[in-house]
Amino acid sequence: PYTMAEQNTTTRKGKALAADVLDTFKGGIRGTVIRPDEAGYDAARAIWNAMIDRRPRLIVRCAGAADVMRSLEFAREQGLAIAVRGGGHNIAGSALSDDGLVIGLSQMRTVRVDAVNKRAYVDPGATLADVDHETQAFGLAIPLGINSTTGIAGLTLGGGFGWASRKLGMTVDSLISADVVTADGRLVKASAKDNPDLFWAIRGGGGNFEFQLHLLGPQVHAGLVVFPLEQANAVFSKYRSFAEQLPDEMAVWAVLRKAPPLPFLPEQHHGKGIVVMALFHCGDPADAEKKTDEIRAFGKPIGEHVGRMPYTAWQQVLDPLLTPGARNYWKSHNFAKLSDDALAAIFQHAATLPSPHTEIAIAQLGGKISRVPTDSTAYSNRDMPFLMNVHGRWETAAEDDGCIAWARSLFDATAPFATGGVYVNFMTQDEHDRVRSAYRPEVWKRLVEAKGKWDPQNIFRTNQNIPPSE
Q: Could you please report the per-residue DSSP string of 234-245?
């Protein structure tokens, strides 16, 4: 709460900002500047993960690159910590900085498609749904993530993978160039020809993204085949060998959770443990049907929802289970293989899920991802065929301790069978000491060098931070 004496300045823990200084700053912004004592502040600071409760001193909803540059300049002048918000989905809450300034990009969501040259020009506040909406009108796509409300900027910065990545590669593999506002306030282009070290290091940032588009859709074969948790051993024994022989056009992810009340699942199974095979096929329909039959033969399914559907519909299929406002805590591992011991630990914890919203997701990677040279981008885990995300998700603060303890227990139990690597976009706010594990040693060294050149004062640090020097 703010007192009457504080209403002419904005302060919390740091030095007060004088009213005339704020007025001058606001006058130079085409977008909107929101202070803690103004209407809409709480809505503006709300992000996807309700576990994050930070109170920025100022939130700027930028209308263009000039607003981004001016906000950065002002934050440096006033000594304010800077956070950059795209879609606000980052699990660690890097979209917000306590007592700092948030450079908000959510009003910059234009997506322009050049169908002839297969290019998309995307503003940094665009969501995956924004991108798919425009590109699918031409039967084109970028390989994106699995929750359509995710922001394109943060996804790209971390590498980005989803249903089509085995066929089309990571999101960063389709990035051609980016307009980047650097730590010293300049707007520069990063591409293979322009500032290639910056392009290699970040594959994203503020400004516009230029992406290569690929032929995909508008119809794909996709869906869910569901087995009871009691069949997990049998299902996974067949899934492992099946996954090794899949063509790039197909990806099959496994999800262990409690059955939601979906209409294609018998009511007696609602709330009970299930194994979901989530399948995606963007190739020949006849082959897709054949492969689906093989999945059905993993066990005795209790229900399914599979068939031809719009690509955009499948991109949004998990949105109802991943709505904003819930409390989330993730732990993640990369696996070179799904060993018997790793699966035993996973099955044991799947039988004791702490909430009806919690799940264990195993993503199948490989395909084209693994054939891109490892030194072409900063993303380092191209040789990993499986990634596990322990997705703790619940509704009330009273459940925090139990759900977090469960997630950490599964993480610790499977650690001996994992590679030690991690996908940086899945790291929570308490894993700063694990950032280095997301990169190979030679990649880490290049990233530190790039950080030292482009951001020597570590201005951009409210993230899974890479220091400007060892």
A: HHHHHHHHHHHT
Eight-class DSSP state of 153 = H
Strand order, beta sheet including 32-34: 32-34, 58-61, 101-104, 82-85
Instruction: Give residue-wise pLDDT tens across range 252-295.
Output: 999 999 999 999 999 999 999 999 999 999 999 999 999 999 99
Q: In the structure encoding, which two tokens stand for residue 339, read together?
A: 């060993």
CA–CA separation, 311 and 191 (whole Å): 29
Asked if residues 205 and 272 have their Cβ atoms less than 8 Å apart, the reply is no
**Which band of pLDDT confidence, cut at 50, 70 and 90, is reported for residue 9?**
very low
Which ranges constitute the DSSP H helices of 140-251? 152-158, 165-168, 196-202, 232-244
* Nearest CA-CA partner of 120 in 147, 94, 95, 141: 141
CB 423 within 8 A of CB 439: no
Q: What is the mean pLDDT of residues 382-395?
A: 96
pLDDT the model gives residue 2? 25
Torsion of CA 362, 366, 372, 373, to 10 degrees: 80
Distance between start and end Cα atoms, the chain: 41
CB atoms within 10 A of CB 298: 20
pLDDT digits (tens, 9 = 90+) for 92-113: 999 999 999 999 999 999 999 9
Strand partners, 127: 151
Q: How far apart are CA 378 and CA 315, in angstroms?
A: 26
Among positive and negative, which fits the CA dihedral 155, 157, 159, 165?
A: positive
User: What percentage of the chain reaches a pLDDT higher than 90?
Assistant: 81
3-class secondary structure per residue, 99-128: CCEEEECCCCCCEEEECCCCEEEECCCCEH
Over residues 451-462, mean pLDDT: 89
Which pLDDT score, from 0 to 100, does residue 12 have?
A: 43
Q: Which string of DSSP letters, residue by residue, matches 24-70?
A: HHHHT-SSEEE-TTSTTHHHHH--S-TT-----SEEEE-SSHHHHHH
Give dist(CA 228, CA 43) in Å, integer.
40
Kindly state the average pLDDT of the residues 433-453.
90
Across 208-225, b (16+ Cβ under 10 Å) vs e yields bbbbbbbebbbbbbbbbb
Task: Tell me the C-alpha distance between 360 and 388, whole Å.
Answer: 7
CB distance 135 to 406 below 8 Å: no
Q: Is 409 exposed, middle or buried (0-12, 13-18, 19+ CB in 10 A)?
A: middle
C-alpha–C-alpha distance, residues 426 and 215, integer Å? 28
